[in-house]
Amino acid sequence: MIYLDHNATTPMHPEVLTAMLPYMRGPCGNPASVHHAGRAARQGMDQARRQVASLIGVHDSLVCFTSGATEANNLAISGVGGMQKQPGHAITSRTEHPSVLEAFGVLQQQGHRVTFLDCDPQGLIAPESLQRHLTPDTFLVSIMHANNETGLIQPLAPLAALCREQGVLFHTDIVQSIGRLPWDKEAIAADLITLSSHKLGGPMGVGALVMDRSLALTPMIIGGGQERGRRAGTPNVAGIVGFGAAADWLNKHRQETVASMTRLRAFLETGLSEKIPGLVIFSHNAPRIANTTLLGIDGLHGETLVMNLDLAGIAVSSGSACASGKGEGSHVLAAMGVPKSLALSAIRLSIGWNTQVQQLERFIHQFAHIVARLQGGATVR
Ligand SMILES: Cc1ncc(COP(=O)(O)O)c(C=O)c1O
């Protein structure tokens, strides 16, 4: 099996599992309990909070654990929306993750005005476009750091700076960038930051919203007062400990992991471009995170490619894991102005911390054969 779908989820590091096991085997107390078992669970969570905070260089009291990035994005947007005393204006982009786009849809239903910013053909948002749309009643801007489909890195610093100048809260989803780029907190003035554990080698079902302590967000889950009243409910202690261990792993190994991903992706893209005429790599002319290639071959169908690769024991996805299976084509490629037939051929390859060059060699070979067969028997160079 060759796994090239690390943007959907990446395998847990062995160290993460080791850190989690004592909390899974138990006895693991409820971290709200005062007895020794509760205190031990709380200590595990406190350590994880410090580990996650240090990944982005903030104080641990700013970290609010959630069930994942979907909840963190929902909480950021609906929580800030809930703080508004009257209908106002909020801004996001057309290429965000559905957990952001749909939360902005709810803001609209609640009577707020929402602007969905357009991007250029690479997926970039011009700061002038944001500036033009900011109004005196804009209360929130949410723009992701790296796109989960194309891997495009959005230069956030000027966008965040515009928001800071105008006193507008700036939220960013850094789920796909954090494993591949250090977070530059001095350059990017963000008020709310979304993270997910399972995209960095931690367990699924855990994430965090990092936010200023003074923000009186309206919680979505109430009744219990956990996470400083921002997210009620007994937390997933073992999962949170695993998230902390994954953050720690990344803090120690990011540089060499990214260097290896950079080499492997160059190998992959060169090999594919040599063997497959007409192959298009989306957002190719813009900065991209080191592990992601979204490619298209006009005339073929992404879902068919995914199924053929699956039969050959190779896991990739057609666009994002959330959008695949719907057959609608990617909203990200639509926003970039990619013609529908090319967009429908897209497949996403994403390399991870355990990808080997031999796997990529096999992938290139198999993929070129599948493409040639589907194109009607053309020979593979
Ligand atoms: C950019 C981005 N944001 C949010 C999410 C949702 O993350 P989670 O699975 O932790 O809810 C994903 C995962 O698909 C993602 O890629």
**Mean pLDDT score:** 95
- As residue ranges, the low-confidence spans are none
Tally the helices. Answer: 11
CATH superfamily (homologous) name of the largest domain? Type I PLP-dependent aspartate aminotransferase-like (Major domain)
How much strand? 5-15%
Query: What spatial form do the alpha-carbon principal axes imply?
Result: globular
Rg result: 21 Å
Write the CATH fold name of the largest domain: Aspartate Aminotransferase, domain 2
Count the domains. 2
- Class derived from helix and strand content: alpha/beta
C-alpha termini separation: 25 Å
List the ligand species.
Answer: pyridoxal-5'-phosphate
The helix-strand sequence is EHHEHEHEHEHEEEHEEHEHHEH
Number of strands: 12
**Order of the strands making up the biggest sheet:** 2-8-7-6-5-3-4
DSSP helix fraction: 25-40%
Overall CATH architecture of the largest domain: 3-Layer(aba) Sandwich
Describe the protein.
By secondary structure, the protein is an alpha/beta fold. The chain has 2 domains: about 1-5 and about 255-375, Alpha-Beta Complex (Aspartate Aminotransferase, domain 1); about 15-250, Aspartate Aminotransferase, domain 2 (3-Layer(aba) Sandwich). Helix content is about 40%, strand content about 15%. The chain contains 11 helices and 12 strands. The chain has helices at about 15-25, 35-55, 70-80, 100-110, 125-135, 155-165, 235-275, 300-310, 330-335, 340-345, 355-375; strands at about 1-5, 65, 90-95, 115, 140, 170-175, 190-195, 205-210, 280, 290-295, 315, 345-350. It has a 7-stranded mixed beta sheet with strand order 2-8-7-6-5-3-4, with helices on both faces. Strand 5, helix 6 (about 155-165) and strand 6 form a beta-alpha-beta unit. It is globular and about 70 Å long. The mean pLDDT is about 95. The structure holds pyridoxal-5'-phosphate. Pyridoxal-5'-phosphate (PLP) binds near residues 99, 148, 173, 176 and 322.
